[in-house]
């Protein structure tokens, strides 16, 4: 439709008259001529700047504010779609006006062409959301500086324009909800300017092509790194999908995004994903570093971005292309805001660290989560040995406490007592209760996160229901073995000491202090038991880290082929030493860490004025048994002593529960399992326990695992007894 000369004259005037506004409103909103959306749009279209990138961008901001108004532009004409959202109703009004006013349409077309010709989209498509490899503290400092200091204007950068138009992260949802059909109609109106003005579609397509090529180069470089190639030994360098990906990207660029070249690109991306999956599986056997996990994450993100760009390039022009473009733009907007957020940076690095912790599960000993009555009994016997050693550890603790030592030496010998006891347990194959390994939580998180689909929920919950009772039974077996043996061993030690020395191991004052410190509600023993659960989890992380360090640095292989060791121990002795290091790495590393933490934490807390203390169920029960021998049989039945016995059960639950919750939380975070899935899983387990507590406490007579369930033997990562 061609406008009349009076309509053309409107463009030359900055402020339309009231009669012109009314005439415009009657023409395009006959049922609601006084609607503010119509009047504001008319004034906005009359003020389209003819030149200047800054002025044009300012007008685009004003247009976006008009689009974001909550008052819908519905009911303006007959047969109008009443189901449109407020935003889409305003977009429909804009399309209808531009279809009817050729002069206004021409001015908007020139503006769109000018904005696209003066802007660059390579950074937006190829860098936003894909970290450039800066260190954590460097990136943290940069984000703080950008949040405090004023930023220089970059009007030609589309990534800055995106944040300028959509200043809050929630705008990504608004952008994704726009109608692709209406945007396609708007593009058909203003997306093809007459020559010699540059075509916006051609410019954006060129930026997408350049971004695809740049991403291909970056992903290829990361995928051909030495440590990635070492973990995919089945592929030759020439046959690497990452090397082929670079060539496929060149073909896409040379053929201007032809459909067959895009299909080759999709296949290349799929092949690269398989290599990344293979490398991730090899982390269990060859170790993992934070840098490697970080680069694998960058490869995954780069491949995702390449797929999104390829979908936009391959979609048919019009509504299908806009549907894919909105998905890409909303994702870019989310990442653009995340790239400026300090909180998002901390969350991402915490997630990478969590993935590094659980990616390598390791194989760290013969003790495992029990699945049969025989395994349950073996766990009890192993824990009985741990209880026997713990009785000596508790007695030695009080002996060292009675010596007049400087604080440093008191802490040193206390740590040596704990760590030495735990290391001996490790080498003798004994078990200490409340050891919650990260491997167990990682297995649970994998079961929660796999088979993500509406029809797979029940099967996933059944697998979890089969695994969790084995974990609780194993911990119960360890507690029963520990406590069942630490009691008679501690009593025997106390009676033997009294027989030899003529007085009890603990004084009456010390015995009363022990009983009072274990009272569940007259002392802070519950708080210290939860704190000890944190220390138990930290020790399991240290166990994983040390084992991963040994494997990643290939220390067993180095020891097995060390010339000096072969001279003194012989080839067989060197291999035996290497095998022992591999077998006991996690146990020794975690044992030493736990021993140091239990001994040092109270001293560190006291140094800062915080009265920290620790409560481990087996050590506390050993101390209570020694106190009972000093106080005598009559005091053992006193209410205070019985309350301390009740505190033992609560301490065990808190030790296990806190350590398990922390390990499971890290695993869920690392595997991107939604919080609602984890809460649902816990709710299901609680309901099952209340209905049938038996399987959670004692093993059934016959129990087997289906082929598709979790493995029957899940190694416990972390000392002692592994």
Automatic annotation (TrEMBL):
<keyword id="KW-1133">Transmembrane helix</keyword>
<feature type="transmembrane region" description="Helical">
    <location>
        <begin position="585"/>
        <end position="610"/>
    </location>
</feature>
<keyword id="KW-0472">Membrane</keyword>
<feature type="transmembrane region" description="Helical">
    <location>
        <begin position="641"/>
        <end position="668"/>
    </location>
</feature>
<dbReference type="Pfam" id="PF10136">
    <property type="entry name" value="SpecificRecomb"/>
</dbReference>
<feature type="transmembrane region" description="Helical">
    <location>
        <begin position="526"/>
        <end position="546"/>
    </location>
</feature>
<feature type="transmembrane region" description="Helical">
    <location>
        <begin position="388"/>
        <end position="409"/>
    </location>
</feature>
<keyword id="KW-0812">Transmembrane</keyword>
<feature type="transmembrane region" description="Helical">
    <location>
        <begin position="476"/>
        <end position="500"/>
    </location>
</feature>
<feature type="transmembrane region" description="Helical">
    <location>
        <begin position="415"/>
        <end position="434"/>
    </location>
</feature>
<protein>
    <submittedName>
        <fullName>Gliding motility protein</fullName>
    </submittedName>
</protein>
<dbReference type="InterPro" id="IPR011385">
    <property type="entry name" value="Site-sp_rcmbase"/>
</dbReference>
């Amino acid at each position: 439709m061609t406008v009349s000369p009076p309509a053309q004259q409107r463009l030359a005037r900055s402020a339309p008259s009231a009669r012109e506004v009314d005439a415009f409103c009657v023409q395009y909103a006959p049922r609601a001529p006084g609607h503010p959306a119509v009047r504001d749009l008319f004034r906005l279209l009359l003020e389209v700047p003819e030149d200047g990138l800054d002025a044009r961008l300012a007008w685009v901001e004003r247009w976006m504010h008009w689009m974001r108004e909550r008052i819908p532009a519905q009911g303006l004409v007959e047969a109008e779609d009443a189901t449109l959202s407020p935003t889409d109703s305003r977009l429909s009004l804009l399309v209808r006006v531009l279809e009817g006013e050729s002069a206004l349409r021409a001015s908007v077309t020139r503006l769109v062409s000018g904005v696209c010709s003066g802007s660059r989209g390579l950074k937006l498509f190829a860098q936003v959301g894909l970290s450039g490899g800066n260190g954590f503290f460097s990136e943290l400092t940069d984000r703080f500086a950008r949040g405090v200091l004023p930023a220089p204007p970059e009007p030609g950068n589309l990534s800055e324009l995106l944040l300028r138009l959509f200043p809050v992260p929630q705008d990504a949802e608004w952008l994704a909800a726009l109608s692709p059909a209406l945007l396609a109609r708007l593009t058909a109106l203003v997306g093809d300017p007459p020559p010699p003005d540059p075509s916006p579609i051609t410019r954006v397509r060129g930026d997408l092509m350049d971004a695809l090529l740049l991403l291909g180069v970056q992903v290829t470089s990361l995928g051909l790194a030495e440590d990635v190639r070492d973990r995919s030994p089945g592929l030759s360098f020439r046959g690497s999908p990452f090397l082929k990906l670079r060539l496929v990207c060149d073909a896409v660029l040379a053929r201007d995004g032809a459909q067959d070249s895009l299909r080759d690109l999709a296949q290349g991306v799929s092949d690269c994903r398989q290599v990344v999956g293979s490398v991730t599986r090899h982390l269990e056997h060859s170790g993992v570093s934070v840098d490697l996990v970080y680069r694998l994450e960058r490869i995954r993100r780069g491949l995702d971005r390449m797929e999104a760009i390829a979908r936009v390039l391959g979609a048919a022009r019009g509504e299908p292309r806009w549907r894919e473009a909105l998905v890409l733009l909303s994702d870019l907007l989310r990442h653009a805001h995340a790239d400026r957020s300090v909180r998002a940076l901390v969350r991402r690095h915490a997630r990478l660290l969590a993935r590094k912790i659980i990616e390598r599960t390791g194989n760290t000993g013969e003790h495992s989560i029990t699945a049969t009555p025989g395994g349950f009994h073996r766990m009890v016997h192993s824990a009985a040995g741990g209880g026997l050693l713990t009785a000596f550890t508790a007695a030695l603790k009080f002996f060292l406490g009675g010596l007049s030592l400087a604080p440093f030496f008191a802490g040193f010998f206390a740590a040596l007592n704990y760590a030495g006891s735990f290391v001996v347990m490790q080498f003798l194959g004994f078990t200490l209760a409340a050891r919650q390994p990260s491997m167990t939580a990682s297995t649970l998180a994998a079961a929660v996160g796999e088979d993500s689909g509406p029809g797979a929920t029940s099967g996933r919950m059944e697998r979890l229901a089969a695994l969790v009772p084995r974990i609780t039974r194993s911990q119960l077996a360890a507690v029963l073995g520990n406590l069942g043996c630490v009691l008679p061993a501690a009593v025997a030690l106390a009676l033997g000491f009294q027989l030899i020395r003529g007085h009890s191991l603990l004084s009456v004052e010390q015995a009363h202090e022990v009983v009072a410190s274990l009272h569940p509600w007259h002392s802070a023993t519950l708080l210290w038991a939860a704190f000890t659960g944190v220390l138990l989890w930290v020790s399991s992380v240290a166990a994983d880290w040390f084992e991963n360090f040994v494997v990643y640095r290939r220390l067993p292989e180095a020891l097995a082929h060390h010339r000096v060791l072969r001279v003194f121990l012989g080839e067989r002795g060197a291999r035996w030493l290497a095998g022992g290091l591999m077998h006991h790495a996690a146990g020794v590393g975690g044992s030493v860490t736990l021993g140091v933490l239990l001994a040092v934490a109270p001293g560190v807390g006291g140094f800062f004025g915080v009265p920290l203390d620790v409560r481990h169920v087996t050590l506390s029960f050993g101390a209570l048994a020694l106190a009972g021998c000093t106080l005598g049989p009559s005091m053992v039945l006193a209410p205070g002593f019985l309350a301390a016995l009740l505190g033992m059960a609560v301490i065990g639950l808190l030790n296990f529960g806190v350590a398990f919750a922390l390990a499971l939380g890290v695993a869920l975070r690392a595997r991107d399992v939604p919080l609602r899935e984890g809460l649902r899983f816990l709710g299901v387990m609680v309901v099952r326990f209340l209905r049938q507590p038996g399987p959670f406490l004692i093993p059934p007579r016959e129990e087997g695992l289906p082929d598709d369930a979790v493995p029957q033997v899940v190694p416990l990562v972390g000392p002692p007894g592994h």
